[in-house]
Amino acid sequence: MTFYPEQLRELVEEFQEVEDKRERLEMLFELAEEIMELPADEWSEQTRVRGCQSEAHVRVSIDDGLVHVFGAADAKLVQGLMGVLSIAIDGLTPAQAVLIPADFAQDMGLTNTLTPSRSNGFRNMYDKVMNEIRQQSE
Amino acid sequence: MSLRDQFPILQREVNGYPLVYLDNAATTQKPQVVLDAMNRYYSQSNANVHRAVHTLAGEATEGYESCRSKLKQRFNADKVIITSGTTEAINLVAHAWGRANLEKGDAVVLTEMEHHSDIVPWQMLAEERGVELRYVPVTQHFTLDMDAFHHALEGAKLVCVVHTSNVLGVRNPLEEIIAASHATGAKVLVDAAQGVPHSTVDFATFGADFMAFSAHKMCGPTGIGALLVQPEAFEEMQPFMGGGDMIEIVTIEGSTYQTNEHKFEAGTPRIAEAIGWSAALDWMDSFDLDAEHERLVDIARWVADEFREMGMTVYGRHGPDDAAVVSFLHPTINSEDMAHLLDARGFAVRTGHHCAQPLLNRLGITGTVRASFYVYNTREEAEGLVKELKEITEKFA
User: Fold this and answer.
1) B contacts of A54 (beta carbons < 8 Å)
2) In this complex, is the C-beta atom of B71 within 8 Å of any C-beta atom belonging to chain A?
3) Which CATH number is A100's domain given?
4) Less Cβ around it within 10 Å: N or C end of chain B?
5) Across the strands, what pairs with B189?
6) Beta carbons of B122 and B111 less than 8 angstroms apart
7) C-alpha atoms less than 13 angstroms from C-alpha of B158 in its C-beta half-sphere
8) ipTM value of the model?
9) Closest approach of chain B CAs to the CA of A26, in angstroms?
10) Which domains does chain B have, with CATH numbers?
11) Average pLDDT over chain A, rounded to whole?
């Protein structure tokens, strides 16, 4: 079972309307600002997205039963995707948040999200966020 | 038909733009003759090798062994063990020679320039056997510290060195390394994955005891490579993998082994891949590799100079014997972003640590963008890359 929030669906559709991949990347880079920033002095081995080509860090907090994601990355592409994920899940309950599939980055025509690998910063970041939500809501 | 036109993949578009394939240090594209040879084997001659007497088995065996014959001829090598690639070839040395000849306290010399595949097998052996590993540092000029090498050599049993760095394109002073190693009684393993695609090596006079390389970096298929071994070192190797094809007689009490290269090729080998590689080797003879190499290094040198002028840092060197590899970093644009921006215009380049993390640690970086050129790349493609980098810099820096 998956859950595709309306704001995520709208974003994906917006990206799908743009034929040029570079334009899509530019749009994504602008979304890098959407994630609540995790300041560099809070980066640690616990926040590090492992296996990412670039330096990327995320932290999940669940306050009053709602998910909030903080993050930062050297690569604008990865931070932009953090921004998209943040738009999609910020303020959801953990039960809803973990149902968001990783497919959206692929649907946006940006990167392969299906295969975890050392070149797939987004997938590693997505997996880390989802695992943390599961662990914290257990 | 031009050399470039023989590669069907180069006709395709990526993200609406003509493909400019510049990730050749990772793997090269395959000419039509290689695709045809593999297809012909599967559609006409598919059978197992070295076993049956029927016609198909004979054709398959002939095709497989023709690869070995061509490798022996091309490299003037007496013993050619077919492996799955460079990584398996190096692991084979660690298991088949290392386990039989290295014991606690023996030293193996490596360099910081090695690919992970020439570090990790030795770390595993060191852990198992208590072998000492000594690493030769890389200087700020992207070369091996040869004073440190000579110092490290003292009492060492084996030296493992990369022919040409996959990150820097630097070709190491192998002749000096081999001569000095032999003078102190150490054997030498050369990781030639990046060297052999750009230059032919006379293995008999080159003098290295072992040389490993892969087919897929020289227009052959993935999944196959070779380990060349000098006769004396070959005699010091013990079988590593047991199974069919490597034995002479098997009884309940025990087994005896083949005495030739088959001793190290247990199981059904990579037949289609060997036939494809054989076709690639023939194809490589259809043009002047030395002249192509000169052309490509000229292109790489020009690209590197242009990049430096644009304010980028270039890691490596582009002398006549070095490889046509340009590793670079933009001062503000992240390397992963750069690769995606280039991909959006059809350029395939590599980013990341290139499986050489100790080298990047020494350089104080975590990754680079790498453009690597091969025989089908053109000056126009290089000019396109430089133009694209200028546009990206103007827009995103």
Assistant:
1) 334-336, 366-367
2) no
3) 3.90.1010.10
4) N
5) B160, B210
6) no
7) 29
8) 0.87
9) 9
10) 4-22+288-396 (3.90.1150.10), 34-284 (3.40.640.10)
11) 87
